[in-house]
UniProtKB/TrEMBL annotation:
Organism classification: unclassified sequences, metagenomes, organismal metagenomes
Organism: gut metagenome
Name of this chain's protein: Major fimbrial subunit protein N-terminal domain-containing protein
Amino acid sequence: MKQAILPHLYIQRNLRFFLFLLWALTLVSCETTCEECEKCEECEEGEEQQGGNPTRLTFYVVSQSTQSGQSQSEAADLEERKIRTIYIYAFDDHHTFPDFFEDPFVNHGYGVDGVYRVNMDIHGTGQKRFYLIANPPKYIQTQLTHRISEGTLRSMIFCMQQPIQQLSQIPQNADGTLNTSKENTGFPLSNQLTGYIHRYSNREGLYLTHEDNPGSTAITTLPLFRALGKISVYAYRETAAPQPTVGGTPAPQENVTITNLEIFNYTCDGYFIPRRTPGGLLDLEAMSKKEVKVGIQPVPLLKEPITVTSNYTSRNQLRLTYFYVCQNSYGKAIEGEINPGVPDTEGNRTTKMVINLSDGRRSEISLPYLRRNDHLHIRIGISLNVIKIEFEEWNLNTVTPDWDDGLDPNKHPQTNQ
C-alpha cells in the first residue's frame, strides 16, 4: 500500500514544481512585455514632442558677400562666398530639440558659387527661429551637434587676435591665435532669422513666409553673411591747384611713397551669430556687449613701402591692401548709413589707422563703425600739402546698408524652386 502512495506523492511534488516554474516564466514574460510597452510609450511620447513625422521644407541658402560694395573693377574673391560646410537649426517653443540639417562635406560642386539647395525635415508648423552657419572654425564646429541648445548657439563667440590678410589665417582655436596650418575651413558665414512654416494645401511639403500669414509670399532663399568685415585701402595723387608748366606742359610731379600703414584699436572678438532687432536689423547695442577684447598694438598692413606715382588719379586708384577684421560696433556712421554706431565713451573703441609718407608726413584717422559683411573702402588722396581721406559712400542701388535678415520679399526677390 505504501509503495502505491509514494509514486503518487512524487508526481504531485513534480507537478507543483512545474506549475511554479510556469508561473514564474509567465511573470517574467509579463514584466518584459510591460517594459517594452513602456519603452514604446516613451518613444511615442518623444515623437509627439517632436510633432510626429517631419515634413520636407526646401529652400536655397545664398552667400550675400557679393553685395558688399565691391567695385566692378575689383575681382570678387570666390573664397568669401564658397560654402564648404553648412549647419542649419530651426527652434520653436513646442519641441524639445531643434530641427537640424547638416552637410559637413559639401561636394559635387554644390556651394562653390555661394548657392546651396537645402531639403530640411521640419516638425510642426508656425513660428521657427532659424540659425544658419557655414564654414565654422574647428572650435565652433565641434559644438554643432543636433541637440545643441539655442542658448549655446546664441552665445558662441568668434575670436581673432588681429586683422588678417589671408583666409587661411582664420583662427581654429578659441583663443583667437592665427592659424598657421595648411588647413583652410573657408570663410565663416552665419545668420539668424525668424519665419513662419505653413503646409501646402494642394501638395506635400512646407513653405516659409516672413509673416504669420499663409497667403504671404513664400520665402525660397535664406541669406548667409560673412562673420567678419572687410576693409580695402586705395591711394592716388590729388591735384588741388593748377600745376606749374615747363615749356607749356605740366612739370613732372615728385612721386610719394607710403612707408607704413597701421591699424590699432580694432575689435578682437564678438558674437559668431548676429543679434537682430525686432525689425530684423543688426542690433549693434546688443552685439557690442560681447566686443570685449581690443587690439591696442598697431598691426602693419603693408609688406613693404609702396610708391604712388602721378599715374594714379581719383579715377585710377592704386589698391594698397585689403584685410579682414572683427565687427566693431563703436564709432561714427559712414555717409549713407541709417543707424549710428555705439558711442565710444571710453575713448579707445574707435578703430584708428595711421599713414606715414616718405616726406615725413603722418596722418591718423578714425574709422567708422564696421559691421560683419561690410566692405569699407578707404581712399587716400595725397597732394603736396594735405592727405585727404575718403570713405566710399554706399552704392544704394546694389547694397542694403543695414544687412537685414533677408526675409522681407518686398526687399529681396525670391528664387523660383
